[in-house]
Design brief:
A hairpin with a 2-residue loop joins β1 and β2. The protein is an alpha+beta fold and about 80 residues long. The protein has a single domain, classed as Transcriptional Coactivator Pc4, Chain A (Transcriptional Co-activator pc4, Chain A), CATH 2.30.31. A four-stranded antiparallel beta sheet has the order 1-2-3-4, with no helix packed on it. Helix content is about 30%, strand content about 50%. It contains one helix and four strands, in the order ββββα.
Length: about 80
């Protein structure tokens, strides 16, 4: 893979966004979730705030997101019943 591929991004604030990127480093492929900011010239720059994981952790990440969804649904249900 010659260049990083952004697979999804979303605005965090007007001057920050979160990017999910597939990238290659030293011959290995990684999934990277990182906050980017807009600099004074209007270009997006990466911050140190983020995490890069080997693709072998994709299943664990998927499980983590599912558990987030379950926990948030339980909290919303408890709030609705309160």
């Amino acid at each position: 893979m010659a260049e990083d591929k952004v697979v999804h991004s979303f605005k965090r604030t007007p001057t920050e966004e979160v990017r999910a990127t597939v990238r290659e480093y030293r011959g290995r492929t990684y999934i990277d979730l990182r906050i980017y900011y807009m600099d004074n010239s209007g270009e997006w720059r990466p911050t140190r705030k983020g995490i890069a994981l080997s693709t072998e952790f994709l299943s664990d990440l998927r499980t983590c997101v599912k558990k987030f969804e379950e926990e948030l649904a339980a909290i919303e249900k408890a709030d609705a019943n309160a």
